[in-house]
Request: fold
Amino acid sequence: MRVTVIFDDRCIGVNGTFYFFSEQEWTFDEDYHAIQWYTNHGEIELRTTDPNIEINDFSTISHFVDKWNEKHAEAQIKAEIDRKQQEHWLKLEKLKEVETKLEIERLEARLKEIESQME
Reply:
């Protein structure tokens, strides 16, 4: 698992998918520049010129991944809602087309009826 946390941007990325968080959503107290995690090790990038801090325990960053998972689940739910709404609108458009076609057919039949009465 590849994880990136960028504190100034309130951004967490997991395996190349990044989410940004509002100030209210960003509940972390750490004051680093960034955190990088590479499968089984990582580093904390400090805001100073001091060397990065090596980390080897995933639990050091697991709360960031948990936050990312929450946002990811929310994004998936929103995407599914959007997909279903789009599907619904397409069905409504098709229904309107059918209704319009039926109305035209009804009017054409009525017109023929009137024309035949006039003969």
